[in-house]
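My hope is that you will study the protein record below before we discuss the fold together.
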Amino acid sequence: MASSVSRFIKCVTVGDGAVGKTCMLICYTSNKFPTDYIPTVFDNFSANVVVDGTTVNLGLWDTAGQEDYNRLRPLSYRGADVFVLAFSLVSRASYENVVKKGEELRKHIGATCYIECSSKTQQNVKAVFDAAIKTNHAQKETRMLQVIEGLI
């Protein structure tokens, strides 16, 4: 049985405009695929989810992908626990851009996994966020063990 919310995880989506970041978040939080495209500047979603018996409040930050917002986007990174990088399989440029962003973010957070998903079919969308939560939890446990070992 899941208990009350035990922790908050801030998850920021990053990727080019029109690759499906907002669709992925809407699919994850409402199990629906939006039919209209409305470019996002910044938006937030929230979901209480249970992973491995632990209830987590997942704060989902939807960032603008358009180049006009390159200077503003990093403002949403502060305090992020998890980054989800999104690209379109039909846009090689969006993949190349996410690789560049991923290399930059990897230096700061240590990216650990790749999961391909489809917002349109909802295939693996839940798996993306479950993996993000589990990875974040494992990293926090490792850091806690390092602190405890340092105290002993």
The chain has three helices and four strands. Residues 7-151 form a domain with the Rossmann fold fold (CATH 3.40.50.300). The chain has a mean pLDDT of 83.
